[in-house]
Amino acid sequence: MKLLAAVMLALLAGGWVVQNQRCGDKYKRLMTLAMEGIRLRAVMRPMLYIIDRYKLTARFPLFFFRLQRSIQKIYGQRHSVEMTLLYAGEMLCYSWLMLMLGCLLTLAAGGNTGLIIGGLLAILLPAAIIKDLHTKVDKRDQDITIELAELLNKIVLLVGAGETVQKAITRCARQKEAQRDHPLYKELIRMIDDLEGGYSFQQSFENFSKRCAVQEVSAFTTAVLLNLRRGGSDFAMALNDLSRGLWEKRKAITRTRGEQASSKLVFPMMVIFMIVIVLVGTPAFMMMNM
Asked: Where's the Type II secretion system protein GspF domain (predicted)?
C-alpha cells in the first residue's frame, strides 16, 4: 500500500506541476475575479486547465447548468460563467488536496486507511460545498418570499390610497434603502436605478423578476404588468389575492424554519444528556464497586 500511495502522490504532484506549466498565464485575469468563498486560488490554475482540456462543461452540462444557475442567484448574472469555472476549480482543488492527504497518511501510518479516508473526503468535501451553495440559494429565495409578502401589503395600501404602482414600489424600496444587503431590496433598488437610467417600467420590472428568479416574484410581476393598464377594482383584487397567497407561503416558511431550528438542538441536548448521565452515574457505580 505504501508503494501505491507513493506512486499516486508522485502522479498527483507531478501532474499539478505539468498542468501548471502548460496553462501559463491563461487564467491570470480569471484569478483576479472577486468572488467570496474562493480560498485556493494559488493552486487552482491546473484545475481550470483540466476543465478546459477535457471539456468537462460539455460532458456534464446539467451539473454545470445547475451550478451556474445557483451562482447567478447568489452573485448575480455578471461574470456568472467565470464564477462557475472558479467554483468548479475550487471543488477539484479540494479533491486533489484530499487525495494528497490520503497518500501522505498512508505513507506515514501504513495500511490502506489513509487512502480510504482521502478518497472519501475527495468525494464528500465537494459534495458538501455544493450542498452549502444550494442551502444559501434556498435561504435567499425564502428571504425574498418572506419580505415580498410585507412589501406587497404596503403596495396594496398605497395603491388603494391613490398612488400609482410605479411610485408605490419606488417609495417602498427607498424606505428600505438601508437594507440594501437584503436580496429583494437589492434587486428593487437596482430596478429603480434602471428606471432612472431610461429603461421603461415594463422592461426594468421584467429584468427585476429575472434577477430574483423566484416563482412568487414572477407571479407578482405578471399580476402587475397584466393589470397595470386596467387599474380599478380588478387590479386591487389581483394584488389582494396575491398578497393572501404570499402570507400563507410566509407562514409555511416560518414554520419550516422553526422546525429546522428545533431539530438542530436535538444533538446538543443528547450530548448534554449523556454528560449528565456520566456525571450522575459514575459516583453510583463507584459506590457499588466499593
From this structure: 152-283
Q: What is the C-alpha separation between 133 and 126, in angstroms, rounded?
A: 11
Give 242: exposed, middle or buried? Use CB within 10 Å, 0-12, 13-18, 19+.
buried
Give the pLDDT score at 279.
67
Q: By the 8 A CB rule, do 140 and 73 touch?
A: yes
8 Å CB contact between 51 and 92: yes
Question: What percent of the chain shows pLDDT beyond 90?
Answer: 20
pLDDT of res. 137: 92
Q: Distance of CA 30 to CAs 44, 48, 55, 56, 275, Å?
A: 10, 10, 17, 18, 50
C-alpha cell recorded at residue 161: 390610497
- C-alpha closest to that of 110 among 5, 9, 7: 5
Question: CA quadruple 145, 146, 150, 153: dihedral positive or negative?
Answer: positive
User: pLDDT by residue (tens digit) across 37-46?
Assistant: 888 888 899 9
- CA 205/CA 221 separation, integer angstroms: 7
pLDDT of residue 47: 92
pLDDT band at 94 (very low <50, low <70, confident <90, very high): very high
> Which alpha helices (H) appear in the chain, and where do they start and end?
2-23, 28-31, 45-53, 56-59, 61-75, 80-109, 113-160, 165-175, 183-196, 201-212, 215-227, 232-264, 266-289
CA distance 182 to 197: 22
Higher pLDDT, 289 or 184: 184
- DSSP symbol at 48: H
